Amino acid sequence: MKNKIYYSAILIINILIISSGFYFIQINQEINLNNYSETINTKINDTVFSVNESLSKSDQYIKTANETIENSNSAIKKLNEEKTTLEKTNYETLAELLEAKSKLKDEENKLLKSNFELSSEKEKAKRLEAELSSEKERAKRLESELKSEKEKTEYLKTSADKYDDLSSKIESQNKIINNIQTPNSDIVENTKRINNLESITSTRTWPSVISSAKTSVVRIQNSSNGKCSGFIFDISNLNHIVEPDTYYVLTNNHCFPKTASGSRIYNNIKITVDEKEVIYNATLINKYANLDIAILKFQSSKNLDLLNILSDEEYEKVKIGTEINVLGYPLGVNVLRTTKGVVSAKIYKSGIADGIRYSERGTI
Questions:
Q1: CB 328 within 8 A of CB 229
Q2: Segments forming the whole domain that contains residue 254
Q3: Domain stop point among 201, 224, 257
Q4: Any idea what the CATH number is for the domain that residue 248 is in?
Q5: Closest residue by Cα to residue 197 from 228, 230, 171, 217
Q6: pLDDT tens digit string along 157-181?
Q7: Residue 245 resides in a domain
Q8: In a shared domain, residues 156 and 259
Q9: Residue 336's closest CA among 203, 216, 208, 157?
């Protein structure tokens, strides 16, 4: 019995000890759980605070972002409005530019038309000026011809008076010869004097000589503005082959100006015959610079008059001091001129002129 009580007491004590242990364990667990819960709550509260603070900041950021977006939208709207305004302005400017370009094109067309009309007027003015210049030249030519005819008339009148005077002298001389007996020598001398007087009267009929010779005198001009005179002559008896419809002109070599190198220019030679407006193209066939002679040729289907070169016999008869008349176009004048002079010197067939040997007369 005592053992049962003892064992029961021990069992009860063990149960109490175990129950107390469980109780203390439970209390400790609750205390730990409470501490853990407090720690968890604290962390949760801290986390919630942080989250709330973050949410507050996020709200602030979102608000700021919304304001920025709103400002951007306003700026974009403003830019779109400015773009629309600019496009409208560009369109209006382009329209004005196209209109101005169209007006400029019209003005350009008007200017071209005006220039064309002005050019036409200038051409007309040039033609009128050329016609006026031509008429002036003709008037000058007619005036010169009239003056020349007046001079010829006066010269003919003077020549006629001289001829009448010489005729009277000759008649008086003939009467004296018939009435006076003279020795043969005196008769011969008087006959020579009379023949000389008659030859003088015949050589002084220059108007008729000029009239017959002037158709053979030519006016010469070249590209270097050289102007001179010459005459058409018969070259057939000077050992030169005459080409068909070809005429030959004798002139001076100095008519053709020198270049800087000293050579003369013999190109683009133009010839006018008998004051006519018909101009012939001529070329050089030979020249004698030491004698100041040049030979030209040109072609013409017309029948032109030729002058003969003096023969050796005729040349010998020409004396220094013999009175001569000269025909030509001095300094390139348009009207034939004549003047008097005398033979001042002669060149004989010595083969030398100015110290330089030349071809004898009669060869070209």
A1: yes
A2: 216-357
A3: 201
A4: 2.40.10.120
A5: 171
A6: 665 566 556 556 555 655 555 554 4
A7: yes
A8: no
A9: 216
pLDDT digits (tens, 9 = 90+) for 20-58: 777 777 787 778 777 777 888 888 888 878 878 878 887
260's tokens: 């800087």
In a domain, 66, yes or no: no
Q: Do 322 and 227 fall into the same domain?
A: yes
DSSP state of 244: T
Residue 338: count other Cβ atoms within 10 Å of its Cβ: 19
Task: Please list, in sequence order, all residues whose beta carbon lies within 8 angstroms of the beta carbon of residue 35, skipping any fewer than 6 positions away.
Answer: none
Look up the pTM and report it. Answer: 0.43
Residue 194 CB contacts under 8 Å (≥ 6 apart), including other chains: 170, 173, 174, 177
The distance in angstroms from the start CA to the end CA of the chain is 199
Q: Report whether pLDDT(193) > 60.
A: no
Give the helix ranges, DSSP H, for 180-287: 184-203, 206-213
State the Cα–Cα distance between residues 23 and 279, nearest whole angstrom: 159
Are 214 and 327 within 8 A, CB to CB?
yes
